[in-house]
Amino acid sequence: MNPLFLIPVILVIAGVFFMIYMNKKHKAAKSEIDLDFERTKYDQYKQELLTQDFSQLKQWMKGKPIDAFTSASVPQSTSSKVQEIVTDGIKNAALSAIGVKLRRIETDCFWALSGNDLHFFSTNTAGELDEHIVFDNFRIEDAKLEYGGILKSQLGVYSKSSEEYLPKTHIITFNIDGSPLSLEIHDRLNYRTDPADMLNLKKQLETRAKYQVVGEKFITILQNKVPNLK
Length: 230
Known about the structure:
Layout (H helix, E strand, L loop, with lengths): L5 H26 L3 H5 L2 H10 L3 H7 L6 E6 L2 H13 L4 H7 L9 E6 L2 E7 L5 E7 L1 H5 L2 E7 L17 E9 L2 E8 L14 H25 L5
Antiparallel strand pairs: 1-2, 1-7, 2-3, 3-4, 5-6, 6-7
């Protein structure tokens, strides 16, 4: 038998053993993370992330305080509405002014709560600021908040076993001159594995924990400021 035919078999077997090994390492590293304890470090993690991983938010806020922040996205239904606005030329200046800015939905978006204002940021493919939209306290007090489930645009990208790491969303719907505009609030910051940390599962899980602790606090702080959103 030509030994070359054995190479694919050897690779498959090696791949199976590697997956088993990595699954064991993942479980061991995960067992060391106590989320309840991590949540007690919210203030520390918030400052760390604003200084390091998400320092761009401080630049975009131009000195305004950041009471809470997390990741965001634009629901597909909102994207469709935006396309209708652009296509049909609806003469709703307020909705059009905001809606036209929300056509790009594949790049990172963020929420930042500052005082009584909600800031929505969208980025371009280079991660640079694309649009900055501010919803003042009048729009927030007239808004509605509901649970939106797992982020739908992410489904299918991850395996079933990784669903616990998918962001869960709340949908905040603003009333823009009688027309609804819905945006998604994530319960964690968007995490992408650094290639240098690909095999460092402990560091990955520690970073995920920080991202979750900071992101999931956003809704609570927002609802404390705006009780009608509870």
